[in-house]
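Suppose a colleague, Dr. K., hands you the sequence of a protein chain of 140 amino acids and asks what its three-dimensional shape might be. Before reaching for any lab equipment, you can write down a predicted structure in token form. Begin with the sequence itself:
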Amino acid sequence: MRALWLCAWCFPLLASADIYRWTDAQGKVHFSETPPPGAQRVEVKPQVVERDAATREREERTRRFYDARRDESSSDQNRAAQQQAQLNQQCAQWRQELESLSQGGRYFTQDSAGERTYYSDAQIDAARQALSARLAEGCR
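The predicted structure, expressed as tokens, is then:
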């Protein structure tokens, strides 16, 4: 954290470096940050680039394109997260059902008259195998 503060403090000093122009004995012009004797300080102004209407329109189209791609990617990620959450919930339910079947006991369904129809051992084994297959196939 201290290094970050140090960099933030020194950055304006680095950005405001002076540039000097000087000519050597052979007549060659040099530019440097350190002034030799007889060097002239050069004021450097940032170049302002004016963009025409076509360039501005092209930049706007590019910005809209990237915004749309970002939004599309975000919605895809949200959709994938929702699907994963649903799958996790379904897997938890299947694990709970398999654990319940593994504990033993008598399992039944009720018909329309309210009568209980008990599962046979073969039906319970088939349900156990089906749940195990679902868990192995779709759940990690």
